[in-house]
Amino acid sequence: MGQFTSLTSADGFTVSAYVAKPEGTPRAAIVVLQEIFGVNSHIRAVADRFAAQGYLAVAPATFDRTRTGVDLGYTEDDMKAGFELKTAVDALPGAGVLQDIQAAIDHAAELSGGKVGIIGFCWGGLLTWKAACLLKGLSAAVPYYGGGMTAEAEIARQPQCPVMAHFGDRDHWIPMEGIEAFKQAHPEVAVHVYSADHGFNCDQRGAYDEAAAKLARERTLAFLADQLG
């Protein structure tokens, strides 16, 4: 089990983050980026599982600039609340939440003494892609069904580290034509498409697909082991 700590971003803002430490010396570090539901039990479990694999995991609370302590479930009301918070964060001026993600990357590097990868889901998947293109200190990135990743402006970005991306072919938020456009623009990205819906990795959601989640996890762990050592 991990615990929460406080990080300081470049502009002086204090952001909370869940940190899960492995037994012994970390093999490397992973920054875990939340969905629109906060650093909830699912995201904490993801961080804990990475710690069990030997990684130091840091999950920053990317809603903190608009509301602290967000821990939502997956009901329709939770979805509505999460979208409102996401919209508020997206409207922040300047670097906004990317500063907090950079603080998490820096903290992960300092604590682990090793390379840092980043993984994110849904909104966190989009932020993972942006981090791979815009932030410093990353050696690997794995966005899961990143909403908005296949928009023209995002496709135009260029990643600064190796990327593996996971999508579902039944995802009504991310149509297949967008995924195909992303693949064509980024042959350097390892894109995997599953017979699954949006949110297929989360075992607390109705869209959870055990087979797809297992295969994506196996591919992710192999990719991170290769890129992070």
Provide a descriptive summary of the structure in words.
The protein has seven helices and eight strands. The chain has one domain (3-228): Alpha/Beta hydrolase fold, catalytic domain (Rossmann fold, 3-Layer(aba) Sandwich), CATH 3.40.50. The strands form two sheets. It has a six-stranded mixed sheet with strand order 1-2-4-3-5-6, sandwiched between helices. Strands 7-8 form a two-stranded parallel ribbon. With 229 residues, it is of the alpha/beta class. The radius of gyration is 16 Å and the shape is globular. Helix content is 38%, strand content 20%.
Report the portion of residues in β strands: 15-25%
How many DSSP-defined strands?
8
| Head-to-tail CA distance between termini | 24 Å
Indicate the percent of residues in helices. 25-40%
Task: List the main descriptive attributes of the protein structure presented here.
229 residues; alpha/beta; 6-stranded mixed β-sheet; 7 helices; Rossmann fold
Offer a concise description of the structure.
This protein has helices spanning 41-52, 76-90, 98-112, 123-134, 152-155, 176-185, 210-228; strands at residues 3-8, 14-20, 28-33, 55-60, 116-121, 140-144, 164-168, 190-194. It is α/β, with parallel strands linked by helices.
